[in-house]
Design a protein that fits this description.
The protein is mainly beta. The chain is built from one helix and 28 strands.
Length: about 375
């Protein structure tokens, strides 16, 4: 190639590459899963719904971002898989089969951890090593898989297999291991040293603890019968975990080493999503049935205030600068935005039917990540 043409070619390639990079790094962004519309992309500078990534009838729910924010991982209800999405274009790059009813996903240390329910004829995805030990027993159900919390039939019993956690290598996007959990696994959290994975199992009222590297079950903590643990969050100092109990309208504070219950705190109806604020001074709890975001002191757990919100607000996130709180309110088909200091409402972002979860880039404190 002629030197001048080669130089022009390289210049054009650089412009295209730069354009793609700028398109991806356009500014602080929130991603919201909508069970019917796909993923809403919110421009956090303008606080508007900038665009929507459509994925047909996949029904995405759980979501998590890679560390650099270039890839979005989605747990898709209908196809029962995990999809990898380019955040610059909204295109699905790869998919991997997970199993029936994948719901929660967390990206951690080069792997994605995805909860799913195998069903009566289920098991690990084809070609995947068998689950490495059960960590739970049967229990009553009534979990919500799309409708209002607590609605639905009691479909969890001793004759059905427990939920499982698929561990996906993000380099190959292959399920390398499937770990048996309790029944109806919900929230996931990692220990401060990164060695343990904790999951809440609402169907049998347990919290299961695993070794992150091997997936080996370490212990199971039994909570009050019928309490239905859902959300879980590690304290900023790594010394405690907070677990929300949806049916008994409480949260418990667990010692991170002994796993003993240190404190039990009353909440409004149906607590689910839970997170500390970015400063670690306050604890936020989304009481979905009570239509409240509750604020507690992060040290004493004294109740500070309640913030009225919409319908089925399960998950929330702070904006990366910590100035606002955003709640995905599924039955209000919107994201509710509040000032993170005064808790006064700022706006509602419409056009997000059956909003399920929300995460941001740059990464910020929230009930999912």
């Amino acid at each position: 190639m002629h030197p001048k043409k080669a130089t022009a070619h390289l210049a054009l390639a650089s412009v295209v590459t730069l354009g793609a990079s700028l398109a991806w790094a356009a500014g602080p962004t929130a991603y919201v899963t909508s069970e019917t519309a796909g993923v809403g992309v919110i421009d956090l500078d303008q606080m508007t719904l900038a665009k929507t990534f459509s994925f047909g009838d996949d029904g995405p729910r759980g979501l998590s971002l890679t560390a650099a924010g270039r890839r979005l991982l989605l747990a898709n209800k209908k196809p029962g898989d995990l999809s990898e999405v380019d955040t610059a274009t909204g295109k699905v790059l790869r998919r991997v089969k997970i199993g029936q009813n994948p719901e929660f996903v967390r990206v951690y240390g080069g792997y994605a951890y995805v909860t799913y329910e195998p069903g009566e004829n289920g098991g690990p995805p084809p070609g995947v090593p068998g689950a490495s030990g059960a960590a739970g027993a049967s229990g009553a159900s009534g979990a919500d898989k799309g409708g209002p919390p607590g609605a639905g039939k009691d479909d969890d019993n001793a004759n059905e297999p427990p939920a499982e956690i698929a561990i996906v290598d993000l380099k190959s996007l292959r399920v390398i291991r499937s770990v048996k959990s309790g029944h109806e696994t919900e929230g996931m959290e990692f220990s401060g040293d990164g060695k343990e994975l904790l999951v809440t199992n609402e169907g049998d009222d347990t919290v299961s603890v695993y070794h992150v590297g091997t997936g080996a079950p370490l212990r199971t903590l039994k909570l009050d019968h019928g309490s239905r643990p859902r959300g879980i969050k590690r304290s900023p100092d790594g010394k405690q975990y907070v677990v929300t109990l949806e049916n008994t309208n409480k949260f418990v504070v667990l010692d991170a080493h002994s796993f003993k219950v240190l404190k039990t705190v009353d909440t409004q109806l149906g607590p689910y999503g839970v997170s500390y604020d970015p400063a670690g001074k306050r604890l936020m709890v989304a009481a979905a049935r009570g239509k409240m975001l509750q604020v507690f002191d992060a040290k004493t757990f004294d109740h500070i205030t309640d913030v009225p919100v919409g319908l089925r607000c399960w998950h929330f996130s702070f904006t990366p600068d910590g100035s606002k709180i955003m709640l995905a309110c599924g039955r209000s088909n919107a994201v509710y935005v509040f000032d993170a200091t005064s808790y006064q409402p700022i706006k509602q972002i419409e056009g997000l039917p059956l909003a399920w979860g929300i995460v941001t880039y740059p990464h910020s404190a929230g009930s999912i990540e």
